[in-house]
Amino acid sequence: MSRLVYLLNGPNLNLLGKRQPHIYGHETLADIERDCTALAHELGLGLRFHQSNREYEIIDWVHAAREEAGGIIINPAAFTHTSVAILDALNTFEGPVLEVHISNVHKREEFRHHSFVSGRADGVIAGFGTQGYQLALRRVAFLLDQQARA
């Protein structure tokens, strides 16, 4: 069983630290990647970190994960609320999927309260800021350990 985790980020997350810091904070995506890479190493996980503003690239990465990854962590950003295609791709993946949102989407606009991705996710982490990514990595490591023992 693979201990490789794909960490996928959707549109506009490349602007973290610059875009609406009152909502998303001052950390950049590079900061998140650095911290997650260090934690993944500590947990004995491999990590592939990707971000795209293009829906098809995220779908392609999910397809690639089917062949080589044990788990997926995804912050689909705005695609959360619009992309049946990403949901369909995630439904082809057999390992654990965790959905992460930096902000608490349930305290925001009504349209942000619905997630297509949640229909596949084994867990959702929202409102913990960028620490949500590290919580998701810890959970994926736990789930992969459980699968290995089964």
Question: Could you explain the architecture of this structure?
Answer:
- With 150 residues, the chain is of the alpha/beta class.
- The protein has one domain: Rossmann fold (3-Layer(aba) Sandwich).
- The protein is 39% helix and 17% strand.
- It has a 5-stranded parallel beta sheet with strand order 2-1-3-4-5, sandwiched between helices.
- The radius of gyration is 14 Å and the shape is globular.
What is the CATH homologous superfamily assignment? Dehydroquinase, class II
The general outline is globular
Which H/E pattern describes the elements?
EHHEHEHEEH
CATH topology: Rossmann fold
Strand content: 15-25%
Number of helices: 5
Can you tell me the CATH class? Alpha Beta
Average pLDDT, rounded to a whole number, is 92
Please tally the β strands and state the result.
5
**Low-pLDDT runs:** none
Total discrete domains: 1
Based on the coordinates given, report the CATH architecture. 3-Layer(aba) Sandwich
What Rg, in angstroms, do the CA atoms define? 14 Å
In spatial order, strands of the major sheet run: 2-1-3-4-5
Helix content: 25-40%
Task: Write out key terms for the chains shown.
single chain; 150 residues; alpha/beta; Rossmann fold; 5-stranded parallel β-sheet; 5 helices; globular
Q: SSE layout and pairings?
A:
Blueprint: E1 4-9, H1 21-24, H2 29-43, E2 46-51, H3 55-68, E3 71-75, H4 84-90, E4 97-101, E5 123-126, H5 131-149
Helix pairs in contact: 2-5, 3-4
